Structure formats: C-alpha cells, structure tokens
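thread: overnight batch results

M.L. [08:02]
morning all. the overnight job finished for the chain we discussed friday. pasting input first so we're all looking at the same thing
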Amino acid sequence: MSALASKLSELPSGIVSAFQSPQPMARLPTRVVDLIRAQDRESERLIIYVQLSLAALLALLYVLAPRPDDAPMTMFAPVPLALVAYALFAVVRLLMSRTGPLPSWFVIPFIVADIGLLLGLIWSFHLQYGEPPAFSLKVPSVLYLFVFVALRALRFDHRYVLAAGLTAAIGWALLTVAAVAKSPDGSITRNFVTYITGNRILIGAEVDKIVAILLLTTILTMAARRAQRTLVTAVREEAAGREIRRFLSQGVADQIATSEELIEAGQAAERDAAIMMLDIRGFTPFSTTVPPSEVVRMLTAFHARIVPIVRRHDGVVDKFLGDGIMVTFGAVAPSQTAAADALRALDQVLSEVMDWERSLSGLGLKFPLHVNAAVASGAVVFATLGDNDRLEYTVIGEAVNLAAKLEKHNKVEKTRALLTASTLIEARAQGYIPAVEPQLRTKSSVAGVSKPIDLFGYPA
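M.L. [08:03]
and the structure it wrote out:
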C-alpha cells in the first residue's frame, strides 16, 4: 500500500487536481454565476446538436454503405432502430434544456444513457449482419466513443468528461465480456493477424482500446478543469469590465479597451475639439428645499434626456459636474467635424431642455430651474492624469476654460446659450446649418477673458 501511495505522490499535481471537484462558484457575484450558467446551457445544447448530427451521419452511412445480399436494408432492423432511439433521446434532452438549466445530477445519467445507446448501436451491428458477437468489437464505430468523451469538454466541467470517459471504458469492457460470453469456444486468439483477418477476439486489443479511452479521459479532464478556471476568470472580468464601463464615458471606455499599449500617467495628445458646457440655474436653492432623493431623481431624468443626444452626435460626456455636464467633441478621438457636431447637438439639447423645463412647471417648484449652455472650440490636450494606481482621462486647454466662462456669462447677456463666433464659422465650414439663427454680440467682455470677443447667443 505504501508503494502505491509513493507512486501516486509522484503523479503531476495537474492530474491529481483534475479529479477534484470543480471550482466553487459560491464566492462569485450572482451576475457572474448567471453568465457562467448561461454559457453551460449553450454548451449543452451545442453537444446535443453535435450528437444529432452524428446520428444523421451514421444513418447516412448505413444507407450508403454496401451490404451483403443476405442483410437487406429495412427500417425495423437493429441498426435503424438503435439510431432512431438515439435521435429521439437527443431530441428529448434538447427540449428539456430549453425549459431551463439541467442540474448536474440529471446530466450524468444522460451521459450514461448516451454511451449506453451508442454501445447498443455498436452491438446491434452483429445482429443486423448476422455475424458473430466478435464482429461488434471490430466495427469502426468504436471511434465515436472518443468523440462522445471529447464532446463533454464543451461544458467546461471536468466531471462530465470524467463521467463520459469512465462510462465509455466500463461500457467497452462490458461489451467485450458480452462478446466473449456469446461467442463459441475457440473465439479468443493471441495471434494479431488472426484477429485482424477473422471474427476472433484478441483480449489485449480490447484492453488497449480501454486504456486509450482512459488516457483520453485523463487528458481532457485536465483540459476541461483548466478551461473552467479560465472561463470563470474571463466571465468574472468581463462582468466587472461591463460594470466599470458604465462609470466611464463610452469614448473613454473604448479608448482604454482598444489601446495596444499600457496606458500610463502623463500620456497626452493634441486635438482640435469643441467643448460644450451645460448648467442648471437655480439648482442650489432647489437642492436645499427638497429631499436628496428628489434631487437625484431630477438629475437622473435630466441626464437621461441629454446623454443620448450627445452620443448621437459623437460627443463624449467628460464629466457630470453636479448640476452641470461637460461634453467634448473630437477630443477623445480625432474628428474633422467636431465644431459642427457640437452645434448640431446644441440645437437638439436646447429644444430638449425647454421641454424638460416645461415638464417641471407643473410640480409647483419654489425656484424655477433653467438650463444654460455654451460651446467653444480650439486646440486642446487629451491627457491621462494621476498615478499608475489611479488614472483619469481629462481634456485641458483654452477652449475648455472659455466654454466654462461663457456658460457663466449667460447671466450677463441674459441668453440661453452662447458660442464663440470662431466656433460658428468653423462649424459652417464643416457643413453645419443652424436650426435657429443665433444673434451676434460683438466685442463682449467676458469675465476672465483678457480682451473682448465676438459671440453668438440664443435668447433665454
């Protein structure tokens, strides 16, 4: 016994761990477990489709293969009956898999039945063709046992591979015993040539088949176990990535996901971009007079109206600034129509916010809420700031500062939205046609801007 234990201790750790129970999913988030189970259901259906294809292939081979004159083809012969039974069994499993996931304790009996039906089909060959039982051990259909074991690796659960392999090995051993028991005396031989050229049984050859099945089972069990670990890790990271992307702007998330190099702090790219600033006037007194939940609900409803418009025009929400939003066009990814995209988005945003403000009028708010906007364009730097443990994409440049100042300057000009004259000129050159012609305001003095500038405004 000690010698056996010593030999077992020398086995590679991968083989030993391959026969342990699968990686537990109890510690995984529910959403990750659901994704893995969905993958399992798809894999089980894929296995059934492959098995139905195999049944169709065997039926085709049965119809096309030449046969002796004394073995006519008939639908009620053993081989067709076994094929029909196998196909019906697969169809039943397919229907059951569509109603919900099949539990593990339910799948293993199906595996045993699969192998049993295949072995029954192999055994039926000697009955179909009137040959001695040894004939069943020589038909090439034994290779389908290997296919059935390999199919179970699609489930990423090594227990199913192990169950299929052990069932196949035991089943072939029983088939060999049955062939020996049903054969007349003298059917067993030790001569390989006699075995190959006649209906004789070579015990060593059948043992070799069983050993090959077990070796295949061991290798695939190890592969399935490693695949399961990889699947769990991949699904967990995919789910985490999917959730994290919801906290990032779509353009920024795509930039991170498609970057071919490691993103590090200090990386920067110069771009010609347009910046839009939005802000809700009257928000501060509003937020002090209503419950926080109402404040959040109002902001969520506001964002739900604005963000889709921004995305339709290739804009990227850079930041949610409490009651404001900073949007960039052509900063995250280069664009030849950044200014035009920004002003097309502004036209729709202004129309949408007016509808939103009208929807608030019936709520009896003590302080009315109004949305102001501003757009400026020019050279910016799209940069990665922070350190390597905490990174953030941001846009830096005079256009950003100017857009923020113009948004505040709406109070002075008593306008709904302001944009620089240069931005409108650039947008027109890019094919933009204003929905409503803005009003020119020449030589406007904007707080924080060193000299007067020409602006276009939309009346409040």
